[in-house]
Amino acid sequence: MNCNVAIVWIRDYMDGELPRKDILTLKSHLLSCPACRSRFEQLERTEALLFTAMKEEPYATDQAASEALNRRIMESLPKPKRQRTWTRWVRRHPAAAAAAVFVLVMLASFTSSWDKSSELIVRGSDLQQVVINGDTVTVPEGVSVNGDLTIENGTADVRGDVNGNVTVIDGSLYTASTAHIAGQTKEIDRALDWFWYKVTQTFSGLTN
C-alpha cells in the first residue's frame, strides 16, 4: 500500500468515513510501516487533546481562552526534526565534498600569508644578467633570459628577451618596444588570483 494513500485513509478513518474492508488494509499497512504508524499516533494524540480541551472549556469564546487553547495544541505537537541537508549532500557527493574541503584549507592557508611580507622576491633559472635596483627588476635591452621569470612585490621592466613566462605578483609589469617574451605574461594583484596561482603551482609540482 502506498504511504500517500495511507495518509488519506487515516484521515477518513479518524472521521469515521473509511469502509470496513479498507480499515483492515490500513491497519495491515500501519503494522508494517513505522512512519505511517507514527503519523497515525500523532493525529490520535492531537485529536484526543483537542477533544479534552474543548470539553474542559466548552464556552471559551473570548480571545485569551482561544489563544490558550491554540497554545496547548501546538505544544502537544511533536517537534519537527531539523533537516540536515548539508550532511545528506556530503554523503551523496563524497568526492565533491573532499575537493571543497581541500579548496577551503588551501584558501585559508594561502590567504593567511597574503600581504605578510613586502620583500622583493625574484625567481628564475637564469638571473645572471638581470639587474635589480630597489624593487625594480630589469631585463636590459640586448639581454636574453632563458626560462621563466617570477617577481613578487616589485616591478618588472622587460626590455630584452625572456624565453619563458613572466609572472608579476603584487607588482607591475612594463615591457619596452624592444622586449620579446616567448611565453605568457601574468600580473597577479588580488588575493584570489594569487590563491589560484599557488594552487596551480602546487598541482604542477605534484605532477612533475
UniProtKB/TrEMBL annotation:
<keyword id="KW-0812">Transmembrane</keyword>
<dbReference type="InterPro" id="IPR041916">
    <property type="entry name" value="Anti_sigma_zinc_sf"/>
</dbReference>
<dbReference type="InterPro" id="IPR027383">
    <property type="entry name" value="Znf_put"/>
</dbReference>
<comment type="similarity">
    <text>Belongs to the zinc-associated anti-sigma factor (ZAS) superfamily. Anti-sigma-W factor family.</text>
</comment>
<keyword id="KW-1133">Transmembrane helix</keyword>
<dbReference type="Pfam" id="PF13490">
    <property type="entry name" value="zf-HC2"/>
</dbReference>
<keyword id="KW-0472">Membrane</keyword>
<feature type="transmembrane region" description="Helical">
    <location>
        <begin position="94"/>
        <end position="114"/>
    </location>
</feature>
<protein>
    <recommendedName>
        <fullName>Anti-sigma-W factor RsiW</fullName>
    </recommendedName>
</protein>
<feature type="domain" description="Putative zinc-finger">
    <location>
        <begin position="4"/>
        <end position="37"/>
    </location>
</feature>
